[in-house]
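Attaching the record inline, Q. Sequence:
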Amino acid sequence: MKTKLVIFGITGDLSSRKLLPALSKIIATGGFEDLSIIGVSRRHVEQYQVLGDHNEQLGGTTSMFTMDLSNPDDYGRLRDYVNLQDDEQLLFYLSVPPDSAAEIVELLGTAGLNGKNVKLLLEKPFGTTLESAKDMITHVAEYFDESQVYRIDHYLAKEMAQNILTFRGRNALFAHVWNNSVIERVDVIALEAIDIEGRAQFYEQTGALRDVLQGHLLQLLSLVLLRIPDNMDWSKLSAARLDALNHVLPATTDKTVRAQYNGYRSEVENTDSQTETFVSVGLQSDDPLWQGVPLALTTGKALDRKVTEVRVHFRKTNEAQSNFLIFRIQPNEGIEIDLVTKKPGYDREFETQQLHFTYPEGTRLPDAYEQVIVDAIESRKSLFASGDEVLRAWEIVAPLQQAWAQTSEDLRFYDHGAKAKTIIEQS
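Structure, as predicted:
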Protein backbone atom coordinates (compact mmCIF):
# COMPACT_ATOMS: atom_id res chain seq x y z
CA MET A 1 0.00 0.00 0.00
CA LYS A 2 1.30 3.46 -0.86
CA THR A 3 2.01 5.64 2.16
CA LYS A 4 1.80 9.40 2.51
CA LEU A 5 3.50 10.70 5.63
CA VAL A 6 2.53 14.22 6.72
CA ILE A 7 4.86 15.72 9.33
CA PHE A 8 3.60 18.65 11.39
CA GLY A 9 6.63 20.40 12.86
CA ILE A 10 9.07 19.35 10.17
CA THR A 11 11.16 22.48 10.80
CA GLY A 12 11.52 21.68 14.51
CA ASP A 13 14.32 20.19 16.58
CA LEU A 14 12.93 16.64 16.82
CA SER A 15 12.50 16.49 13.07
CA SER A 16 16.04 17.62 12.30
CA ARG A 17 17.67 15.45 14.98
CA LYS A 18 15.60 12.29 14.72
CA LEU A 19 12.87 12.08 12.08
CA LEU A 20 14.75 13.19 8.99
CA PRO A 21 17.82 11.03 9.72
CA ALA A 22 15.51 8.06 10.38
CA LEU A 23 13.56 8.60 7.17
CA SER A 24 16.79 9.00 5.21
CA LYS A 25 18.00 5.61 6.45
CA ILE A 26 14.62 3.98 5.80
CA ILE A 27 14.60 5.22 2.20
CA ALA A 28 18.21 4.06 1.80
CA THR A 29 17.16 0.48 2.57
CA GLY A 30 15.19 0.47 -0.67
CA GLY A 31 12.17 -1.19 0.88
CA PHE A 32 9.79 1.77 0.94
CA GLU A 33 9.66 3.09 -2.61
CA ASP A 34 5.96 3.93 -2.20
CA LEU A 35 6.57 6.35 0.69
CA SER A 36 6.08 10.07 0.07
CA ILE A 37 6.64 12.79 2.66
CA ILE A 38 4.76 16.06 3.07
CA GLY A 39 6.31 18.57 5.43
CA VAL A 40 3.92 21.07 7.02
CA SER A 41 5.21 24.45 8.14
CA ARG A 42 3.62 27.74 9.22
CA ARG A 43 5.86 29.83 6.98
CA HIS A 44 7.13 29.27 3.48
CA VAL A 45 10.45 27.45 3.48
CA GLU A 46 12.30 25.74 0.68
CA GLN A 47 12.52 21.97 0.77
CA TYR A 48 16.31 21.89 0.63
CA GLN A 49 16.52 24.25 3.62
CA VAL A 50 14.46 21.84 5.73
CA LEU A 51 16.11 18.62 4.58
CA GLY A 52 19.67 19.90 4.85
CA ASP A 53 22.12 17.00 4.69
CA HIS A 54 19.24 14.65 3.87
CA ASN A 55 18.17 16.47 0.73
CA GLU A 56 19.95 14.05 -1.59
CA GLN A 57 18.21 11.04 -0.03
CA LEU A 58 14.78 12.58 0.66
CA GLY A 59 14.49 15.38 -1.88
CA GLY A 60 12.81 13.26 -4.51
CA THR A 61 10.10 12.03 -2.17
CA THR A 62 9.43 15.16 -0.08
CA SER A 63 7.23 18.19 -0.72
CA MET A 64 6.38 21.15 1.49
CA PHE A 65 2.95 22.54 2.43
CA THR A 66 2.50 25.93 4.12
CA MET A 67 -0.56 26.49 6.30
CA ASP A 68 -1.94 28.21 9.35
CA LEU A 69 -2.36 25.40 11.87
CA SER A 70 -5.29 27.22 13.51
CA ASN A 71 -7.23 27.90 10.30
CA PRO A 72 -9.90 25.25 9.51
CA ASP A 73 -9.93 26.25 5.84
CA ASP A 74 -6.27 25.34 5.51
CA TYR A 75 -7.07 21.79 6.54
CA GLY A 76 -9.44 21.62 3.61
CA ARG A 77 -6.57 22.73 1.39
CA LEU A 78 -4.37 20.07 2.97
CA ARG A 79 -7.03 17.42 2.32
CA ASP A 80 -7.14 18.39 -1.34
CA TYR A 81 -3.36 18.48 -1.56
CA VAL A 82 -2.97 15.01 -0.04
CA ASN A 83 -5.72 13.62 -2.31
CA LEU A 84 -5.82 10.27 -0.53
CA GLN A 85 -6.82 7.32 -2.72
CA ASP A 86 -8.43 4.04 -1.67
CA ASP A 87 -5.18 2.12 -2.17
CA GLU A 88 -3.17 4.56 -0.04
CA GLN A 89 -2.68 5.15 3.67
CA LEU A 90 -2.08 8.50 5.32
CA LEU A 91 0.08 8.99 8.42
CA PHE A 92 0.03 12.22 10.40
CA TYR A 93 3.12 12.65 12.57
CA LEU A 94 2.53 15.42 15.13
CA SER A 95 5.99 16.63 16.15
CA VAL A 96 4.52 19.65 17.94
CA PRO A 97 3.80 20.80 21.53
CA PRO A 98 0.77 19.21 23.27
CA ASP A 99 -1.44 22.32 22.99
CA SER A 100 -0.83 22.50 19.25
CA ALA A 101 -1.38 18.76 18.90
CA ALA A 102 -4.82 18.98 20.51
CA GLU A 103 -5.91 21.68 18.08
CA ILE A 104 -4.48 19.86 15.07
CA VAL A 105 -6.26 16.64 16.03
CA GLU A 106 -9.59 18.47 16.21
CA LEU A 107 -9.11 20.29 12.91
CA LEU A 108 -7.96 17.14 11.13
CA GLY A 109 -11.09 15.40 12.34
CA THR A 110 -13.49 18.15 11.38
CA ALA A 111 -11.86 18.33 7.92
CA GLY A 112 -12.52 14.64 7.37
CA LEU A 113 -8.85 13.71 7.54
CA ASN A 114 -9.54 10.83 9.91
CA GLY A 115 -10.84 8.07 7.67
CA LYS A 116 -10.13 4.36 7.97
CA ASN A 117 -6.80 4.58 6.11
CA VAL A 118 -5.50 7.35 8.37
CA LYS A 119 -3.09 6.91 11.30
CA LEU A 120 -2.14 9.46 13.95
CA LEU A 121 1.35 9.42 15.49
CA LEU A 122 1.64 11.34 18.75
CA GLU A 123 4.77 12.34 20.66
CA LYS A 124 5.17 12.67 24.41
CA PRO A 125 4.20 14.12 26.73
CA PHE A 126 0.80 12.48 27.01
CA GLY A 127 -0.45 14.91 29.61
CA THR A 128 1.26 16.32 32.67
CA THR A 129 -1.01 14.74 35.29
CA LEU A 130 -3.52 11.90 35.40
CA GLU A 131 -6.40 14.29 34.78
CA SER A 132 -4.74 16.06 31.86
CA ALA A 133 -3.86 12.69 30.32
CA LYS A 134 -7.50 11.62 30.59
CA ASP A 135 -8.57 14.86 28.92
CA MET A 136 -6.06 14.39 26.10
CA ILE A 137 -7.05 10.78 25.43
CA THR A 138 -10.75 11.68 25.51
CA HIS A 139 -10.15 14.57 23.12
CA VAL A 140 -8.28 12.41 20.61
CA ALA A 141 -10.99 9.73 20.84
CA GLU A 142 -13.59 12.23 19.65
CA TYR A 143 -11.91 12.29 16.24
CA PHE A 144 -9.82 9.12 15.91
CA ASP A 145 -10.44 5.51 16.88
CA GLU A 146 -7.89 4.02 19.29
CA SER A 147 -6.80 1.62 16.54
CA GLN A 148 -5.65 4.63 14.51
CA VAL A 149 -3.60 6.21 17.31
CA TYR A 150 0.12 5.46 17.68
CA ARG A 151 1.56 6.96 20.90
CA ILE A 152 5.32 7.01 20.65
CA ASP A 153 7.64 5.96 23.46
CA HIS A 154 10.93 5.59 21.61
CA TYR A 155 12.49 3.67 24.50
CA LEU A 156 10.25 0.71 23.63
CA ALA A 157 11.60 0.79 20.08
CA LYS A 158 15.27 0.67 21.09
CA GLU A 159 16.95 -2.54 19.98
CA MET A 160 18.01 -3.69 23.44
CA ALA A 161 14.61 -2.90 24.96
CA GLN A 162 13.06 -5.21 22.37
CA ASN A 163 15.73 -7.76 23.25
CA ILE A 164 14.51 -8.00 26.85
CA LEU A 165 11.51 -10.03 25.75
CA THR A 166 13.46 -12.11 23.26
CA PHE A 167 16.08 -12.89 25.89
CA ARG A 168 13.43 -13.86 28.42
CA GLY A 169 11.19 -15.85 26.12
CA ARG A 170 13.65 -17.62 23.83
CA ASN A 171 16.28 -18.74 26.34
CA ALA A 172 15.24 -21.66 28.53
CA LEU A 173 18.04 -20.77 30.95
CA PHE A 174 16.06 -17.74 32.12
CA ALA A 175 12.49 -18.41 31.04
CA HIS A 176 11.74 -20.55 34.10
CA VAL A 177 13.52 -18.50 36.76
CA TRP A 178 11.88 -15.15 36.03
CA ASN A 179 10.00 -14.78 39.32
CA ASN A 180 10.34 -13.75 42.95
CA SER A 181 11.72 -17.07 44.12
CA VAL A 182 14.91 -16.45 42.14
CA ILE A 183 15.00 -12.70 41.45
CA GLU A 184 15.82 -10.49 44.42
CA ARG A 185 15.59 -6.98 42.97
CA VAL A 186 15.06 -5.03 39.73
CA ASP A 187 16.64 -1.65 38.99
CA VAL A 188 15.74 0.50 35.98
CA ILE A 189 17.97 3.54 35.60
CA ALA A 190 18.44 6.38 33.12
CA LEU A 191 21.23 8.69 34.23
CA GLU A 192 22.71 11.64 32.35
CA ALA A 193 25.95 13.53 32.88
CA ILE A 194 24.62 16.63 31.12
CA ASP A 195 22.42 19.19 32.85
CA ILE A 196 19.32 20.79 31.32
CA GLU A 197 21.52 22.57 28.74
CA GLY A 198 19.48 25.74 28.51
CA ARG A 199 16.05 24.08 28.26
CA ALA A 200 14.84 26.06 31.25
CA GLN A 201 11.23 26.65 30.20
CA PHE A 202 10.69 23.02 29.22
CA TYR A 203 12.28 21.54 32.30
CA GLU A 204 10.58 23.86 34.78
CA GLN A 205 7.26 22.62 33.42
CA THR A 206 8.33 18.99 33.38
CA GLY A 207 10.95 17.70 35.81
CA ALA A 208 12.58 14.28 35.98
CA LEU A 209 9.44 12.42 37.10
CA ARG A 210 7.35 13.52 34.12
CA ASP A 211 10.18 13.69 31.61
CA VAL A 212 11.61 10.19 32.00
CA LEU A 213 10.31 8.09 34.90
CA GLN A 214 6.56 8.23 34.33
CA GLY A 215 6.84 7.13 30.72
CA HIS A 216 10.15 5.60 29.69
CA LEU A 217 11.18 3.85 32.90
CA LEU A 218 7.77 2.44 33.73
CA GLN A 219 7.53 1.05 30.20
CA LEU A 220 10.94 -0.62 30.55
CA LEU A 221 9.87 -2.02 33.93
CA SER A 222 6.75 -3.48 32.34
CA LEU A 223 8.95 -5.44 29.90
CA VAL A 224 10.64 -7.09 32.88
CA LEU A 225 7.43 -7.83 34.79
CA LEU A 226 4.97 -8.83 32.07
CA ARG A 227 3.88 -12.38 31.43
CA ILE A 228 5.10 -13.16 27.92
CA PRO A 229 2.18 -13.90 25.56
CA ASP A 230 1.92 -17.43 24.19
CA ASN A 231 4.24 -18.10 21.26
CA MET A 232 5.80 -14.64 21.77
CA ASP A 233 2.77 -13.08 20.07
CA TRP A 234 3.90 -9.46 19.75
CA SER A 235 0.41 -8.31 18.81
CA LYS A 236 -0.60 -9.00 22.43
CA LEU A 237 2.36 -7.13 23.89
CA SER A 238 0.51 -3.91 24.74
CA ALA A 239 -2.11 -5.82 26.72
CA ALA A 240 0.64 -7.71 28.54
CA ARG A 241 2.44 -4.47 29.46
CA LEU A 242 -0.82 -3.01 30.73
CA ASP A 243 -1.47 -6.08 32.87
CA ALA A 244 2.01 -5.75 34.38
CA LEU A 245 1.48 -2.05 35.14
CA ASN A 246 -1.93 -2.76 36.68
CA HIS A 247 -0.15 -4.91 39.26
CA VAL A 248 2.38 -2.19 40.16
CA LEU A 249 1.21 -0.42 43.32
CA PRO A 250 1.06 3.40 43.35
CA ALA A 251 4.25 5.13 44.44
CA THR A 252 4.63 6.45 47.98
CA THR A 253 6.72 9.36 49.26
CA ASP A 254 8.47 7.24 51.91
CA LYS A 255 10.04 5.15 49.14
CA THR A 256 10.95 8.15 46.98
CA VAL A 257 13.92 10.51 46.85
CA ARG A 258 13.80 13.70 44.79
CA ALA A 259 16.62 16.18 44.41
CA GLN A 260 17.85 19.16 42.41
CA TYR A 261 21.39 19.89 41.31
CA ASN A 262 23.05 22.99 42.72
CA GLY A 263 22.96 25.85 40.24
CA TYR A 264 19.69 24.75 38.63
CA ARG A 265 17.73 27.65 40.13
CA SER A 266 20.16 30.16 38.63
CA GLU A 267 19.86 28.51 35.22
CA VAL A 268 16.06 28.73 35.22
CA GLU A 269 16.08 32.14 36.94
CA ASN A 270 13.73 30.95 39.66
CA THR A 271 15.18 31.10 43.17
CA ASP A 272 12.25 29.15 44.59
CA SER A 273 12.10 26.37 41.97
CA GLN A 274 11.04 23.02 43.40
CA THR A 275 11.53 21.14 40.14
CA GLU A 276 13.36 17.86 40.62
CA THR A 277 16.31 17.06 38.36
CA PHE A 278 16.73 13.67 40.06
CA VAL A 279 14.20 11.15 41.31
CA SER A 280 14.40 7.60 42.57
CA VAL A 281 11.20 5.67 43.30
CA GLY A 282 10.84 2.33 45.03
CA LEU A 283 7.85 0.31 43.83
CA GLN A 284 6.18 -3.03 44.50
CA SER A 285 4.01 -5.37 42.44
CA ASP A 286 1.12 -7.41 43.81
CA ASP A 287 1.45 -9.96 41.01
CA PRO A 288 2.12 -13.31 42.77
CA LEU A 289 5.15 -13.75 40.52
CA TRP A 290 6.72 -10.53 41.80
CA GLN A 291 5.41 -9.96 45.33
CA GLY A 292 8.18 -8.91 47.69
CA VAL A 293 10.67 -7.94 44.97
CA PRO A 294 11.85 -4.31 45.29
CA LEU A 295 11.51 -2.43 42.00
CA ALA A 296 13.63 0.72 41.84
CA LEU A 297 13.36 3.37 39.11
CA THR A 298 15.99 6.12 39.05
CA THR A 299 16.69 9.00 36.68
CA GLY A 300 18.47 12.31 36.84
CA LYS A 301 20.69 14.94 35.23
CA ALA A 302 24.14 16.34 35.99
CA LEU A 303 25.30 13.02 37.43
CA ASP A 304 28.62 11.19 37.26
CA ARG A 305 27.81 9.17 34.13
CA LYS A 306 25.45 8.60 31.25
CA VAL A 307 23.79 5.18 31.22
CA THR A 308 20.37 3.63 30.68
CA GLU A 309 20.00 0.03 31.75
CA VAL A 310 17.80 -2.60 33.37
CA ARG A 311 19.57 -4.53 36.10
CA VAL A 312 18.13 -7.81 37.43
CA HIS A 313 19.62 -9.15 40.67
CA PHE A 314 19.33 -12.88 41.42
CA ARG A 315 19.06 -14.18 44.95
CA LYS A 316 22.00 -15.50 46.90
CA THR A 317 21.75 -19.07 48.19
CA ASN A 318 23.66 -20.87 50.95
CA GLU A 319 26.25 -22.16 48.50
CA ALA A 320 26.14 -19.55 45.76
CA GLN A 321 26.82 -15.83 45.52
CA SER A 322 24.19 -13.57 44.03
CA ASN A 323 24.41 -12.79 40.31
CA PHE A 324 23.03 -9.99 38.20
CA LEU A 325 21.98 -9.52 34.62
CA ILE A 326 22.15 -6.17 32.81
CA PHE A 327 20.31 -5.06 29.70
CA ARG A 328 22.20 -1.93 28.64
CA ILE A 329 20.08 0.35 26.48
CA GLN A 330 22.75 3.02 26.09
CA PRO A 331 25.61 3.61 25.60
CA ASN A 332 27.09 0.49 23.98
CA GLU A 333 23.92 -1.58 23.78
CA GLY A 334 24.42 -5.09 25.07
CA ILE A 335 23.78 -7.71 27.72
CA GLU A 336 26.06 -8.44 30.66
CA ILE A 337 25.89 -11.38 33.05
CA ASP A 338 27.84 -11.32 36.30
CA LEU A 339 29.09 -14.80 37.24
CA VAL A 340 31.36 -16.32 39.90
CA THR A 341 34.28 -18.37 38.59
CA LYS A 342 37.31 -20.08 40.06
CA LYS A 343 40.28 -17.77 40.25
CA PRO A 344 43.22 -19.13 38.24
CA GLY A 345 45.86 -20.73 40.47
CA TYR A 346 46.49 -23.57 42.91
CA ASP A 347 44.15 -22.27 45.60
CA ARG A 348 40.38 -22.76 45.62
CA GLU A 349 39.57 -19.07 45.42
CA PHE A 350 36.75 -17.43 43.58
CA GLU A 351 36.26 -14.21 41.67
CA THR A 352 33.49 -12.43 39.81
CA GLN A 353 33.69 -12.18 36.03
CA GLN A 354 31.39 -10.63 33.46
CA LEU A 355 30.14 -12.27 30.30
CA HIS A 356 29.35 -9.62 27.70
CA PHE A 357 27.15 -9.73 24.65
CA THR A 358 27.56 -6.83 22.27
CA TYR A 359 26.66 -6.57 18.61
CA PRO A 360 29.54 -7.37 16.24
CA GLU A 361 31.56 -4.39 15.09
CA GLY A 362 29.97 -2.89 12.01
CA THR A 363 26.45 -4.07 12.85
CA ARG A 364 23.99 -1.31 12.00
CA LEU A 365 21.42 -0.98 14.76
CA PRO A 366 18.26 0.75 13.54
CA ASP A 367 17.57 3.96 15.40
CA ALA A 368 14.46 3.83 17.57
CA TYR A 369 12.73 6.35 15.32
CA GLU A 370 13.37 4.19 12.28
CA GLN A 371 11.57 1.36 14.07
CA VAL A 372 8.73 3.67 15.10
CA ILE A 373 8.12 4.89 11.55
CA VAL A 374 8.42 1.45 9.95
CA ASP A 375 6.09 -0.17 12.49
CA ALA A 376 3.50 2.58 12.00
CA ILE A 377 3.64 2.13 8.23
CA GLU A 378 3.20 -1.62 8.62
CA SER A 379 0.43 -1.29 11.26
CA ARG A 380 2.40 -2.98 14.02
CA LYS A 381 1.30 -1.42 17.31
CA SER A 382 3.23 -3.56 19.80
CA LEU A 383 5.88 -0.87 20.44
CA PHE A 384 3.36 1.95 20.95
CA ALA A 385 1.65 2.81 24.23
CA SER A 386 -2.10 2.38 24.45
CA GLY A 387 -4.27 4.99 26.12
CA ASP A 388 -4.83 2.62 29.04
CA GLU A 389 -1.08 2.15 29.51
CA VAL A 390 -0.58 5.90 29.60
CA LEU A 391 -3.30 6.36 32.22
CA ARG A 392 -2.02 3.54 34.40
CA ALA A 393 1.48 5.03 34.39
CA TRP A 394 0.06 8.36 35.57
CA GLU A 395 -1.96 6.58 38.27
CA ILE A 396 1.26 5.05 39.62
CA VAL A 397 3.03 8.41 40.05
CA ALA A 398 -0.03 10.52 40.92
CA PRO A 399 0.46 10.23 44.72
CA LEU A 400 3.92 11.77 44.36
CA GLN A 401 2.65 14.69 42.32
CA GLN A 402 -0.11 15.32 44.84
CA ALA A 403 2.29 15.20 47.80
CA TRP A 404 4.90 17.41 46.13
CA ALA A 405 2.27 20.03 45.43
CA GLN A 406 1.80 20.37 49.19
CA THR A 407 5.40 20.52 50.42
CA SER A 408 9.01 20.80 49.28
CA GLU A 409 10.62 19.79 52.55
CA ASP A 410 11.83 16.49 51.09
CA LEU A 411 13.72 18.12 48.18
CA ARG A 412 17.45 17.39 48.41
CA PHE A 413 20.34 19.07 46.61
CA TYR A 414 23.47 17.67 44.97
CA ASP A 415 26.57 18.83 43.10
CA HIS A 416 27.29 18.24 39.43
CA GLY A 417 28.89 14.84 38.93
CA ALA A 418 27.31 13.23 42.00
CA LYS A 419 26.62 9.50 42.10
CA ALA A 420 22.97 8.43 42.19
CA LYS A 421 23.69 6.15 45.15
CA THR A 422 25.16 9.05 47.12
CA ILE A 423 22.07 11.21 46.54
CA ILE A 424 19.76 8.40 47.61
CA GLU A 425 21.72 7.61 50.76
CA GLN A 426 22.29 11.19 51.96
CA SER A 427 20.37 12.03 55.12
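Residues 159-425 form a domain with the Dihydrodipicolinate Reductase; domain 2 fold (CATH 3.30.360.10). The chain has a mean pLDDT of 94.

More tomorrow.
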